[in-house]
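Hi F.,

I've been meaning to write this up properly since the lab meeting, where we talked about keeping a consistent format for the predictions we share between groups. The idea is simple: the sequence comes first, exactly as it goes in, then the structure tokens exactly as they come out, then a line or two of notes. No screenshots and no reformatting. I'm using this chain as the first example so we have something concrete to point to.
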Amino acid sequence: MPVKILRLSPAVFLAAALVLHAADKPKTPAPAPAATDPYAEVQPATETLDLNMYQRIRDEGLNHSHVMEFGTALMDGIGSRLTGSPNLAKANAWTRDTLTKIGLENAHLEDWGEFGLGWQQLNTWARMVTPDTAVLIVQATPWSPGTSGPVTGDVVFVNIQTDKDFDQYKGKLAGKVVLFGAMREVPPVEKPLFERYTEKDLDDIAEFQVTGGGGALPPDIQARMRERMERLRLVDKIAQFFADEKVAAVIEPSRDGKNGGGSGGTLFDDNGATLGRTPYIADKRVKVPVVVAAIESYGRLFRLTQNHAPVSVEINVDTKFTGDHEHGFDTVAEIPGTDPKLKEQVVMVGGHLDSWIGGTGATDNGAGTIVAMEAVRILKALDVKPRRTIRIALWTGEEEGIFGSKGYCTMHFGSAKLSTAPDQVQLPEFMRRATGPLEVKPEQKLISAYFNVDNGTGKIRGVYTQGNSAIAPIFAQWIAPLKDLGVTTITNRNTGGTDHLSFDAVGIPGFQFIQDMLDYESRTHHSNEDVVERLQPADLKQIATVEAIFLYNAAQRDQMLPRKPLPQPDMEQKLRAPIEGIFPGAVPPSDTDKK
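Output, unedited:
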């Protein structure tokens, strides 16, 4: 049964304090261990922590912070950072040069491969012309073509749910501005859009949930994903249909946010709004201009069409394509290790540098980028000489499928071949079957851990172990002196959706921190509200300070951090298969029955 560590009790803090007091006493340094298999290293029950370094990191991080300087330079000075765009190229160069400026070594860009279309939005606007004049709140969806200047068209609502629905619209859409997407409910905002975790929330997160299934995705989730994939297949067909019909433009409604946050002029502009599964690939490009509208703007147009009132819109989508085969790059830099026996080992920290285009990518994930930069700046400002090398990596292509971190892990650490069967190729990579074992490279054994921030600007409240129960007692000792900063919770739960998964998939300990969600899910995640005004400077200072302490502790330990067993992706189905022949009286199926 996995170790379950709840939020720390006073007794645990007292015990940790005694351990830390003992750590202040002079000790004969333990000899550095010889190179060993990180899966077999024996882990001590008690951590040796440097409380003086805790204090120095806190003082630098909380009293001499530069995190908001990084933030305004990146978000205000460069702006949104869509993968493949000129802005992301600027951000790659700026992070590389800035990391060099603050003292890191070997700052460089690593090419993770071809991404697809380079694109940027120059200007987008729309207004209702009849039966009234009104400004509409819209943005182009990523990789939308432009309109070649303002165009005006009658508005029609198109509802295609199955292949049979195409016939009713054939020959009727030329020059029209199409509303595509059902009008959703707009609930009153009755709950706060800005929330911090309560004591009970943290208790619930700390409790490890054991499910009754066999370990795979539950059947209901698999069914929903298959349904979504089928809908996306239909959307690809719809996009081509609109092009063949020569529509003037397409307007889609913005989705909602948590607690009704997707209203009041907020719009979400991401993969959910693009008219196609992979519009960034040249031969899958969308051929008609597409915009996403704030729900109030969409709602007025929708209601007019439903009441058969003539309505027309003037729309201008001004976009620019900058290349068909743009490559993606990660920014990487280091603080070199100094211990002769451990300096080849590495502790990593990072977040993703790319963003969507609605705002300036401040909370997703400018926050994760600038706190990682600030964490390594803190350590350099203190002239820390880590035993292991500390490496920062700022990923790109995360929003489209964690491409940057996955590409980095494939090149450096290992991978497993995935099925190329027709039904499997249609699935997202994480759902595809592996057809061979995980093949690891020599560097895989040299990475102690990877730490990631990608849940907005809220302060750290603890850490997910990603099912690595052996590390929970270690992290519990690390966070004991950080209780006053609000860091109290260890959970063995998994959390998904971002770059630590690339490391976990190749057998390297990868961790995401528990953060206060604030208004991330309700208002800022992929929206036009994702701007510097939504950043919380005090929280960012706390995050960077905690990250710096985690990096320091991991870099200084005699041992690498403990690992889960090496993944066996090609064996998952076999390991979960029912045990044959155990049901009393069962008759084995004949070959005919099997067919």
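Notes:
Residues 1-34 have pLDDT under 50 and may be disordered.
The chain has 17 helices and 16 strands.

If this format works for you, I'll send the rest the same way.

G.
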